């Protein structure tokens, strides 16, 4: 019997290659979903894969309605999970103020990345123990709402679906354990069985990234979910899919770390920074030498300061494993800092906060190209 939060599908055998990570970054720039015309309520259980794909092209802007509810092999009680709510009503005004997107998409690839809203359907062709993933990402100031419409996954045949608060790849997660307010186990909700629900069970991500991992060995079985993007008034962790732009990380006085991670090599420049206490030469000492008064201080962590900004890179999603290239703290509305250029596949800006101060940093992120390599501050593997 599967229980929520005890393990992720990655630990059950999914270990994509580093080449796949590069493919993920490339696919982030593509629109992978399609819209379709109207159709009444769907019965996915008796449809073949070919029929389902043909139907997807005929579907229109209409809510998918499940007419019955039954449960055989029902596994963990979803109502008891902190990640799930009894109905979409728990979203408050966010669901009512957001236009309902009813585009329908059939998932045909094992690894799919989508920046779109709508209804996603998957029906297994009998793939054995293959573990696949639907990677979801929204705008930086949005969270992702996942509503379960339909589930048919045989528990006794090692079938499993896992909804993840964040992304997971190669055993690493975004946001990292150190940068997320929830415990690691509570960010995974695993389930199997047969569900056709009228009252949807709903998962809300903590940031603009979420993941559906699934292993469905039995041909003809599958699932259907609705994806919506809702406004996040206090974004902390951000996964960046755009090649350039200005982004703000802010702790709002909380004892949390906020992280921005790009899925590409990047050039980062700090546009605004306010971290920690305004310090003077008499307040900060390092190696028995007084630090000269200045608005920006370097290597703050080594000085014993608890609030600072780190810029670094890694080949994986876990920011706690990144190579720190630059570290700053202090206060300046227009800091005259050079760009930090990193070639690691993934670039991270991390705002570390003790909870004693209201910290905020705004950074400019641009995509680094081949011509930037000679002046790069750090290149992974070199």
From TrEMBL:
Query: Which biological process annotations from GO are given for this protein?
Result: hormone-mediated signaling pathway; negative regulation of corticotropin secretion
Enumerate the subcellular locations listed in this protein's record, separating them with semicolons. Secreted
Q: Name one GO cellular component term.
A: extracellular space
Question: Corticotropin-releasing factor binding protein C-terminal domain spans which residues?
Answer: 239-372
The record's annotation in InterPro entries points to: CRF-bd, CRF-BP_C, CRF-BP_N
Q: What PANTHER family would the database entry show?
A: CORTICOTROPIN-RELEASING FACTOR-BINDING PROTEIN
Q: What is this protein called?
A: Corticotropin-releasing factor-binding protein
Q: Which organism is it from?
A: Allacma fusca
